[in-house]
Amino acid sequence: MNVRGQMWTSPEALRRSHRNVLRAEEPGLTGIGMEPSFGIGQRALLVRTRDGNVLWDCVPLLDAAVVDGVAAMGGLAAIAISHPHFYAAMVDWSHAFGRVPVYVHAADRRHVMRPDRVIEYWDGDHRDLPGGLTLVRCGGHFDGSTLLHWPEGAKGRGALLTGDTIQAVPNRRAVSFMYSYPNYIPLPAEAVRRIAEAVEPLAFDRIYGGWFDRVVPARAKAIVARSAGRYLKAIGSHQASP
Questions:
Q1: How many angstroms separate the CA atoms of 222 and 206, rounded?
Q2: Tens digit of each residue's pLDDT (9 = 90 or more) over 18-54
Q3: CA gap 163, 84 in Å, rounded
Q4: Helix, strand, or coil here: 197?
Q5: What torsion do the CA atoms of 175, 178, 181, 184 make, to the nearest 10 degrees?
Q6: Which residue ranges make up each domain of the chain?
Q7: Assigned architecture for domain 11-234
Q8: Residues 86, 149 contacting (CB under 8 angstroms)
């Protein structure tokens, strides 16, 4: 993050100063990030399924090398976005792969600054995607903040792709929940309970956050429940369990 605050740039300038990197996370899952680090250092995830590939979130940079790399893995069937901090280049990514649909929760529609016919707004708390994937609206970070449930991840034990709605912490044995990470503004108890309740019915053993190496590799479901309880206790909630 830039200590001088936000600054404007352009896709052309980014391509001169940065490059995309692809990194295998596990079979069927590839991370897409930028070097050197840009913005808050976030990365996207490409999920490969039998019914086509889904890109989870988008990084701001789109260059020929990453287009070729993703095309070599089968291209894209759809793009799904966790929250507005990943909106910037989502239309460019869609157009580069044949104008595939971009799924954005309708609760965050007002944050879309570049309308396009490829954007499909969805309502409710769940939306099925190709390959058995499911979008799950949790709220919290934004009204429409969404997770992606990947049942075949973690060798069939299930994985959640969480952006920073559920944030894996560096020791990988806990997660956290925040309204604003750069400004250290916490979420209220009600929002944390909603997130915990939204994922409780899901089968998952692993979490992939919004950054390289921010992963909970095992026992993630129990870790989310325990971390939510710890969070609620720390902020003085009278109901310390979700």
A1: 10
A2: 899 999 999 999 999 999 888 877 899 999 999 999 9
A3: 11
A4: helix
A5: -110
A6: 11-234
A7: 4-Layer Sandwich (3.60)
A8: no
